[in-house]
Amino acid sequence: MSEHYDVTIIGTGAGGGTLLNRLASSGKRVLVLERGPFLPREKGNWTYKGSFKYYSSEPMYNKVGKEIYPGMCYYVGGNTKVYGAALFRLREKDFESFRHKDGVSPEWRLKYRDFESYYDEAEDLYQVHGKVGEDPTEPARKKDYPFPPISHEPRIKEVFETLKAKGLKPYPAPMAISRACRTKEIDARVCTHKVRANANERSAKAMGHEARSLKSANSHQSRVCMNRDLCIRPQHRLALCFPDSHSGALRPAP
Question: Fewest CB atoms less than 10 Å from the CB: which of 5, 80, 85, 144?
Answer without folding.
Answer: 144
